[in-house]
Design brief:
Elements lengths: L1 H23 L2 E6 L4 H12 L5 E3 L9 H7 L8 H16 L7 E5 L7 H6 L6 E4 L15 H9 L10 E5 L3 H7 L5 E6 L6 E11 L2 E11 L2 E8 L8 H12 L4 H8 L10 E4 L5 E5 L5 H13 L5 E7 L8 H15 L2 E5 L24 E4 L2 H11 L4 E6 L7 H7 L14 H5 L2
Parallel strand pairs: 1-3, 1-4, 2-3, 4-5, 5-6, 6-7, 11-15, 12-13, 12-15, 13-14
Antiparallel strand pairs: 7-8, 8-9, 10-11
């Protein structure tokens, strides 16, 4: 029954969402890509809120359901029939009654399968597009003919731009940069390499009172350089959303000072490199929102560079939705895992490939049953790891959404009240455990 009703519901939502957009005509900034969309969406919304009445997607609701929910300004009704009626009621109220509607929408858009973005683009047409990283092996590749097909779909919102409209692309991503040349848009780039319009330099950890509190970097825009800090999260990827937001602000003619002031309160979303105090004096890097090869590489680089660590522990769950690339990508990252962590805890069958073998590049690192731990699922890991960690440990926790590695983070927290700051804490998610 659900499969039969889904197309009908999607059609009704799209019809109502298009009507709402026609009535209020807000400007639309669309955020697309494979890695870092939600953080970028949040940073862009923070920057533009200095001048606009902004609405953005809640969490990562970026699908053909989530985008209409954002347009209507409603929460995800999940399976609640009365809540679904409320969604329709809210949409009709927007169409029939006077409303103070946002004059700018920041819409994160995502694709799980071929054609998802084309359906969203039939609902909303962007006035500006922000592209995040499009890696060699993207997530959801199992649902596509090739990685190139995923990247092409994720870049497709740029093709819907009017001529001369802003297109913000990552300068360090060769695919995005090459495709941008085919679009008659006003291209603004961001990244760490020389030549980026908005450039990140001097990246490092932000320390306060002798403790790591976040990330900092110098970011230049319009010839002006300022120091920017992301508090509460670590990893170079936490700074890219700020640079992308500054690029959007530039496109909207913000001064660097205005954009910088608007971004001072930005925080990375839950599950994206967030720092927590762990049991027994440990430190947790909570990267439990999702996982993909590119994201694991960045997370391991962060763990490897984290200062003052006595032991670096990588708790890595399966990377899902990789299809025929699953085995090779898990094995490829094993070498990086071996040199980045002193202890490796794998969660799930596929993740066992993360544990390096005692041969070749890994022969110099001696592994034993105390340094390679294997768990079938997150519940087993959550039960065992709290007694294993000790003072000075830095623990990276990462895994695909379905692996639910946030359960491991919750078990490791020194203060259980911090559980409210983790991903997937809603009642509906908890019921799926």
């Amino acid at each position: 029954m659900k499969k039969l009703l889904r197309p009908v519901v999607v059609f009704i939502l799209a019809l109502l969402a298009r009507a709402v957009l026609r009535r209020y005509a807000p400007r639309i900034v669309m955020v697309t890509g494979s890695v870092g969309k939600t953080s970028t969406k949040d940073a862009v919304a923070a920057a533009l809120s200095a001048r606009f009445y902004v609405r953005k997607n809640e969490k990562s609701f970026n699908s053909e359901f989530g985008v209409p929910f954002t347009i209507f300004g409603v929460e995800n009704p999940w399976t609640n029939s009365l809540a679904w009626l409320s969604v329709v009621k809210s949409a009709l109220a927007l169409l029939l009654l006077p409303n103070h509607y946002p004059n700018l929408l920041v819409l994160e858009v995502g694709a799980d399968k071929q054609g998802d973005l084309s359906r969203i683009l039939r609902i909303a047409t962007p006035d500006a597009v922000v592209v995040t990283r499009l890696p060699e092996i993207p997530v959801h590749v199992e649902a596509y003919a090739s990685p190139e097909a995923v990247r092409e779909e994720e870049f497709s919102p740029a093709y819907a731009l009017p001529a001369g409209a802003p297109l913000i692309v990552p300068f360090d991503d060769s695919y995005a940069l090459a495709n941008a040349k085919r679009v008659p848009a006003c291209v603004i780039s961001y990244g760490v390499s020389e030549g980026a319009t908005v450039r990140i330099q001097h990246t490092g950890f932000y320390e306060n009172e002798g403790k790591i509190r976040g990330m900092q970097a110098a970011i230049s825009m319009n010839g002006e350089e300022g120091t920017y800090v992301v508090r509460g999260s670590v990893g170079r990827t936490q700074l890219l959303p700020l640079a992308a937001a500054l690029a959007v602000a530039k496109a909207f003619a913000f001064s660097p000072a205005e954009a910088r002031a608007a971004l001072e309160q930005y925080e990375a979303p839950p599950g994206r490199g967030r720092l927590f105090a762990g049991k027994n004096g440990s430190i947790i890097i909570d990267d439990s929102y999702n996982s993909s090869p590119a994201a694991v590489e960045e997370a391991l680089a962060t763990l490897s560079a984290f200062p003052h660590a006595k032991r670096r522990i990588a708790v890595l769950g399966d990377m899902l939705e990789l299809g025929r690339y699953s085995v090779t990508e898990h094995e490829r990252l094993a070498a990086l895992t071996g040199v980045s962590a002193d202890v490796i805890a794998t969660v799930g069958i596929r993740a066992r490939a993360f544990a390096p073998v005692l041969s070749g590049a890994h022969a110099s690192r001696e592994h034993s049953r105390d340094t390679v731990l294997m768990f079938d699922n997150s519940r087993a890991a959550a039960a065992a790891l709290p007694d294993f960690v000790r003072e000075g440990d830095v623990i990276l926790v990462k895994g695909s959404q379905s692996i639910r590695t946030e359960c491991i983070v919750e078990a490791l927290l020194a203060d259980h009240a911090d559980a409210a700051k983790l991903v997937r804490q809603e009642k509906k998610w908890k019921q799926k455990l």
